[in-house]
Design a protein that fits this description.
The chain is an alpha/beta fold and 430 residues long. 21% of the residues lie in helices and 25% in strands. The strands form seven sheets. It has a five-stranded mixed beta sheet.
Length: 430
């Protein structure tokens, strides 16, 4: 087998070229029945045979009991958590026929240029859902415009023996990690530095090598969304206008990392990313892109649901220091509703942690209904059930409620902090 070099290069797509995702079909997993000469996974009564001169790499997903196993001179087993092998203890196994010798088939015949060994899809979602596209044989094998996917939690062996020394690809994903040298090549050619920008808070879109000034929209969408149809709408309804003549647009499906309350990392979600750049300079950098982004947001609020768009958010950075994030929901619902819900969720979380005794909240001396509540509690007797509220209204005479709260907030005994259950608070106050 020849050495394989994947050259991942930046390509300007031609009108006749369409980039798609190509997924390698075979694998060398232990649990894949097609990898065994008997057409079934070895069981406890079987003897497993590997050719002595065969180089193997096999992913094992679970635990297997075997009577015996003959290993090759060179190879590896990649074990998933909890996976392994054990010697058969002789107990009855109802799902296993009388023992036989089971041989691992030769994976050398899986050739890169075999069209039957590739699935093609227009998006990662279609690939995961098995919505493959038909193509003639020569176009089923990956080319320089394609993203190649090797499925996570699989092992594989690919025979690339051919007259081609290099295979040109857009990107390749192995074991869930995308290997991309585009940015490294770009930065090397530019002295390993991104260009200086005129905006105050530039940002980096997903898939872009450097930060930019301009605007990026992120759209959450339903299964009825058609990316090409929506791109045509933007180009015809907006980019055709003279005032947006200098704006460049790039639209693609990407996976955007998510966090809980802006802190805890969560799984990424698929979104439509629209990147807008303009040709303005100095303090006007990004202003045309900003205007177009705002126009698209207004259009989403009014017509987004008809295109399968759920919400849209925009990130802006311009030379006039106009930066930040905002968004809308399709149908005209303000994104502030979502912000309010997140705020309510935060308050609920704080209350839950407080009730569990994991955090303490600052005491506050307030007037009005809270004072009356405190007076009622004083009549009923002392209790230790929450906030330390004042029972003597005279304590706050001459002081505005807000000022009293500020005094309490600056006290060393207040503030939000975590309680260490290993220590008594009185011991630390020495």
């Amino acid at each position: 087998m020849k050495d394989l070099f994947f050259l991942l290069c930046s390509v300007q797509l031609l009108a006749s070229s369409v980039a798609v995702y190509k997924q390698w079909i075979p694998n060398t997993n232990f649990e894949n029945a097609s990898n065994w000469d008997k057409g079934q996974i070895p069981c406890a009564h079987d003897v497993v045979l590997f050719k002595s001169n065969e180089v193997i790499s096999i992913f094992v997903q679970s635990t297997h009991s075997l009577s015996d196993m003959y290993l090759p001179l060179t190879g590896e087993f990649i074990m998933a958590p909890g996976a392994g092998f054990a010697a058969f203890d002789g107990s009855w196994d109802p799902g296993c026929d009388p023992g036989s010798a089971v041989s691992f088939t030769d994976a050398e015949h899986y050739k890169w240029h075999d069209p039957a060994l590739w699935h093609a899809a227009s998006s990662l979602e279609d690939l995961e859902e098995g919505k493959y596209i038909f193509a003639v044989d020569e176009e089923r094998v990956p080319c320089q415009y394609d993203d190649v996917i090797f499925q996570p939690e699989t092992s594989f062996r690919v025979n690339v023996d051919s007259s081609e020394r290099m295979i040109h690809l857009r990107s390749i994903s192995i074991m869930g990690q995308e290997h991309e040298r585009i940015c490294a090549t770009l930065l090397r050619d530019s002295g390993s530095q991104c260009p200086a920008l005129a905006c105050k808070d530039p940002f980096q879109p997903v898939g872009h090598c450097c930060e930019i000034c301009g605007a990026t929209l992120s759209l959450e969408y339903t299964s009825g969304f058609d990316i090409r149809q929506y791109e045509n709408r933007i180009r015809h309804a907006f980019l055709s206008l003279p005032k947006y003549a200098g704006v460049q647009l790039a639209i693609s499906k990407v996976r955007k990392p998510q966090t809980f309350l802006g802190i805890v990392p969560r799984d990424s979600i698929p979104v439509i990313q629209i990147v807008l750049l303009d040709d303005k300079m100095g303090s006007q950098t990004g202003t045309n892109a900003e205007q177009l982004a705002e126009a698209i947001l207004r259009d989403i609020a009014e017509h987004g649901d008809s295109f399968g768009i759920v919400t849209g958010t925009v990130q802006i950075a311009t030379g006039s220091n106009s930066s930040g994030q905002r968004g809308v929901a399709a149908g005209g619902t303000a994104a502030g509703i979502l912000t309010g819900l997140l705020g309510l969720l935060l308050l609920s979380t704080m209350l839950f942690l407080y009730r569990k005794g994991l955090i303490r909240l600052p005491s506050a001396r307030l007037t009005g209904l809270w004072d009356r509540k405190g007076a009622q509690d004083a009549v009923a007797g002392p209790s230790d059930k929450g906030f330390d509220m004042p029972t003597d209204r005279a304590e706050s005479h001459g002081v505005c409620p807000g000022e009293e709260v500020l005094k309490e907030m600056t006290s060393k005994d207040t503030g939000i902090y975590f309680v260490n259950p290993l220590y008594d608070e009185t011991e630390l106050a020495v």
